[in-house]
Design goal:
Layout lengths: L5 E6 L4 H11 L3 E7 L3 H11 L2 E3 L2 H7 L4 E4 L6 H10 L3 E5 L6 H14 L3 E4 L6 H11 L4 E8 L6 H6 L6 H4 L3 H4 L2 H11 L4 E7 L10 E7 L5 E7 L7 E7 L2 E6 L3 E6 L3 H7 L12 E2 L8 H19 L7 H20 L3 E2 L6 H11 L5
Parallel strand pairs: 1-2, 1-4, 2-3, 4-5, 5-6, 7-10
Antiparallel strand pairs: 7-11, 8-9, 8-15, 9-10, 11-12, 12-13, 13-14
Helix pairs in contact: 1-12, 4-5, 5-13, 10-13
Amino acid sequence: MHVEHVRIAVIGVNGIGQAHLFAIAAAERSELVAVCDIDALRAEKTAANAGVAAFTSVEDLCSAGVADAAVIATPCGTHGPIARATLDAGLHVYCEKPITPTADEGYALARYAAAAKRVLAVGFQYRFHTGYAAARRAVDEIAPLAHVQLEATNWFRPQAYFDASPWRSTWAMAGGGVLMNQAVHQLDTLISITGMPSRVHARVASVRHRAAVEDHAVALLEWSSGATGGLVASLNEPAGRERFTFAGAKGSVVLTDGYLVEHATHDDVQKFSDECPDEFPELTHEWKHADVARASSEWLDMFVDAHRDFASAVLDGSSPAVPAADGTRAVELANAIYLSSCTGETVDIPLERGDYPRLFDELASGSREI
């Protein structure tokens, strides 16, 4: 039986681009046809190994007409221009996270892709993570939420991480530090479960690295529903970990290190608080563990599932799991945190158009520091 394929070119084959090469090969309806990298030797070597065409410029790739779609796996600061160029060439686009340094540009790209009638998906592969999915299901059972905590300190990076690729330390190319390039996955997960916060008060800093971007961030969050919460994200803790805590009207859910999902349920907390006759009641709620399927190759499996989803969006006309506007929300939350930290003020979300780009330009030029 004939299976229709999406012909895909990967732009940027260093680092995360390599994962896309493997994922495309494993996804049934995807076909790698070209690679593009500004490093000619790297492009040629990768292309030779894969048996595909090599390009060193996006313009040449687009004019060659060999692909239906492009994966953008370059530094964040280049995403916008490359996405526009590939969309202009009629290609569908899978853009690695974060979509752009500013939410203004990300939402503008979403509108641009819609006008071009092309798929623009964002690479939040953790949307396909089995532990995160189990936590989402458990949280549905305890809603509405009252309090949320996110600890994202499982991203330790030594100075060598920045020294090996100096662009990672710059606002112009990286778009930010831990919030944009590591914990952005957890910001996206938080938003996908709780919805977007409506207010944030935050502090970010570069504590242990010779880098312009932040390696540590803390924030207080508020939701329009009345829920409150907080987050901490850091590159500085060798023994750091990931932990989400959700407390709702009917119970609590804790997700630890990706796969350990614990949940406890109870009667409506307001009713219990109002009617409980005891001053110090004995609470014996049972914490249960969710059954989370786990494969030894799940990190690669998430990429493969993301490419299956992208191929379906291109070939079948379905909406991708993370369309551009949805994939920009985590960037907007990170932007709000930076804005709050630099101004010392509580910031409302959604952001006013233009507010953060002005600050970002100052950070990128070096005229302002965090």
